[in-house]
Amino acid sequence: MQAKELDRLIDDRWKEMEVHGEANQTLRMKLSRLKCSLKKWNKISFGNLDHRIRLIENEVEDVDKRGDISVMTEEDVNRGKKTTGELWKLNRSREILWRQKCKVDWERRP
Q1: Are 13 and 34 in contact (CB under 8 A)?
Q2: Nearest 5 degrees, angle CA 41-CA 46-CA 49?
Q3: Cα separation of 1 and 21, whole Å?
Q4: Four-point Cα dihedral 44, 5, 7, 41, nearest 10
Q5: Is 0.70 topped by the overall pTM?
Q6: 82-97 confidence digits (pLDDT tens)
Q7: Are 53 and 91 in contact (CB under 8 A)?
Q8: Residue 1 banded pLDDT, cuts 50, 70, 90
Q9: Domain of life of the organism in this record (predicted)?
Q10: 17 near 33, Cβ under 8 Å?
Q11: C-alpha Rg value of the chain to the nearest Å
C-alpha cells in the first residue's frame, strides 16, 4: 500500500513542477522540491517510530497482563496477535532505518 502511494506521490509531484532553465538546474530544483515532499510524506506516513513502538509495547503488555489475571477472551487473543504483529513490523522498520543510516555514515567517511 505505501509503495503504491509513494510511487503516486513522486509521479504527481514531478509532473506538477514547472521549473525553467538549463537541464542541470531544472533537475537540481526538481530533486530539491521532491525531497521536501518526500520528507513530509515520511513524517505523515511513519511519524515518530520510537514513540509508536512504545505505544504498541504498552498495548502488548496490557494484553499480557489481562491473560495473567484471567482467561483471555477471543477478542483479547485477536488483539494480542494484531498488536504483536504490528510491533514486529515497527521493529523491522526501525532496524531497516538504522541499517540505512549506518550505510550513509559509512559511505561519508573518508
Answers
A1: yes
A2: 145
A3: 36
A4: -10
A5: no
A6: 999 999 999 998 888 7
A7: yes
A8: very low
A9: Eukaryota
A10: yes
A11: 21
